Amino acid sequence: MNYFIFKHKKTMTKLQLTFSLATFTLIANTAIASGNHAGGHDAPTIGEAGKAAQVTRTIQVEMRDTMRFVPANFSIKQGETIRFVVKNMGKLKHEFTLGTDKDLKEHYEVMKKFPEMEHADDNMLSVAPGQTGEMLWKFSQAGSVNIACLHVGHYEAGMKGVVKVEAKKVPTNGAKNDSHLSH
Ligand SMILES: [Cu+2]
Predict the structure, then answer these.
(1) How far does residue 174's CA lie from ligand 1's centre (Å)?
(2) The whole model's pTM is what?
(3) Per CATH, which fold does 11-166 belong to?
């Protein structure tokens, strides 16, 4: 059996996904076109794998066979490292994948073509029925990070969520502590 293993880290993600999707031009183009509102001028980054020593908070999430994450909406502050403790309450396998809306949609199109595809990365967690998984993630950029279960049918049925990352308060533009040399 041939598996398509997607080890997508940072820019590798897009390159590999784009490469794979190029084979399925029609579907891919549709997905890319419809997933285009997430950008600005800067490409959004969802953050990076977190370190245990930097965890600021633990958040519990349930995965249910009703194709829901409970809860599905989270509010955190920029710079926080979250320990997600994700419990699969159902009888089906589910996954917890972080990404931009666009990346998740693209990835989902690939999953539909290759439902048996194995994929693993720091930003995705696969949890068997009755099991609990953990993911540490550092949210380094303000904005929204999306959550999805990319198993075929699940994402479309609404198995998704959003992490709102509130911008860290910065004093003023360009202030780099250079005015702090009293004494
Ligand atoms: Cu699922």
Answers:
(1) 44
(2) 0.71
(3) Immunoglobulin-like (2.60.40)
The structure tokens 């890319």 sit at: 32
Within the chain, which residues score under 70 in pLDDT?
1-43, 171-183
Q: How close is the Cα of 86 to the center of ligand 1, in Å?
A: 12
pLDDT computed for residue 149 by the predictor: 97
Q: For the chain, give the number of residues.
A: 183
Ligand 1 centroid to residue 149 C-alpha, Å: 5
Strand positions, DSSP E, 29-141: 48-49, 55-64, 68-70, 73-77, 81-88, 94-99, 124-127, 132-138
Distance 154 CA to ligand 1 centre (A): 5
pLDDT tens by residue, 133-152: 999 999 999 999 999 999 99
* Alpha carbon of 132 to ligand 1 centroid (Å): 14
User: Which residues, listed in sequence order, are joined to residue 74 by a DSSP beta bridge?
Assistant: 163
Distance between Cα 150 and ligand 1 center (Å) = 7
Can you name the residues that pair with 134 across neighbouring β-strands?
85
pLDDT of residue 19: 40
Q: Where are the domains of the chain?
A: 11-166
